[in-house]
Every structure is written in structure tokens, then in C-alpha cells.
Amino acid sequence: MIKYILIAASVIGAGAMGYVGERFMRPTPSAPSGQAVTQELMFKMPLGKFTMQIMQSRKVLHLMFDMDVFVMGEVSFHEINGAVGRARLRDATVSAIAELAETDQSLAQPIAEETRKAELAAQIVRKLYVNFPAVRTARLNSFYSNITLRE
């Protein structure tokens, strides 16, 4: 009788250990079965040069940007890369730069250091992200600013 109780307890104990320890011993799949893991790529989209004049109270701020944006994902890139999408992205970039020029007085000073260019590009991307969530980052290739007095 004791022999049968020990065998039953061993079987129940081994079953419980197998049930609990299975997830530690078995490798877990990294992707759901039947689906391949796809890594999203960043696509470079050169926007070109922007030349702007922003009228302020007693002066005119002249700005010239040369900028590239990076879009996450092939589908999003193809949606934006058409003539209409690229025009919308350029218009949104111009409005973001104009809004920054009105609020940020340091935009009038020349930017020579790369950290300031990266900070300015990040501010532009934050404003673009509202309407274009696929835009992840941007790079300012060149930036020039000049102030002239208003007549």
C-alpha cells in the first residue's frame, strides 16, 4: 500500500515539476508562428533647400536651410514619397521653421556647432511628428541666417 502511495506521489510531483519547469527549459519563439521578424528601416528623404524671409517688427530674418528627413518604414516612405506627400511634408517643414523663427530668438544667430544643429533639427522633427508620425529624425546639412532692418 505504501508502495502505491509513493508511486502516485512521485507521478504527481513529477507532473507538477514538469508543468512549472517547462517554461524555463523550453526556448520561447521570438515571433509568432508563421510570421517572419521584419526590422523597420529608416529611409532618407532629402527635402532640399528652404529660403525664407520672416518679417518681424523692425527687421527681416532671412533663413536658408538644407535639410534631410529620415522616415521609418518602407510603407510610410512610399506614402510620403509621392508628389503630393512630398509637397505636404515640405509645407509642414516650412511652417514648423517659421513657427520656430517667431518664437526662438536664438535662430537669428549663426549656428556653427553641430550640437546646436542637431537640437534645431530635433525641434523641427517634433513639430513634423504631429502630422507625419513616420518622420523619426532629421539632419540639417546647412543653415544660414541673416538679419536686415526693415524699411
Helical stretch count? 4
Task: Trace the largest sheet across and list its strands.
Answer: 1-2-3
- Weakly predicted, low-confidence segments: none
Q: Please indicate the percent range of residues in DSSP E strands (runs of 2 or more).
A: 25-35%
H/E element order: HEEHHHE
Q: Could you name the CATH topology? A: Tetrahydropterin Synthase, Chain A
Category by helix and strand content: alpha+beta
Task: Give the beta-strand count.
Answer: 3
From the structure above, extract its key features.
Flagellar protein FliL; Tetrahydropterin Synthase, Chain A; rod-shaped; alpha+beta
Provide structural commentary.
With 151 residues, the chain is α+β, with helices and mostly antiparallel strands. The chain has one domain: Tetrahydropterin Synthase, Chain A, CATH 3.30.479. The protein has 4 helices and 3 strands, in the order αββαααβ. The protein has a 3-stranded antiparallel beta sheet. A hairpin with a 3-residue loop joins β1 and β2. The chain is rod-shaped and about 110 Å long.
Gist?
The chain is α+β, with helices and mostly antiparallel strands and 151 residues long. The chain contains 4 helices and 3 strands, in the order H-E-E-H-H-H-E.
Question: What order do the helices and strands come in, and which of them pair?
Answer:
Layout: H1 2-25, E1 42-55, E2 59-72, H2 74-80, H3 83-103, H4 114-128, E3 135-149
Antiparallel strand pairs: 1-2, 2-3
Helix pairs in contact: 3-4
Protein name: Flagellar protein FliL
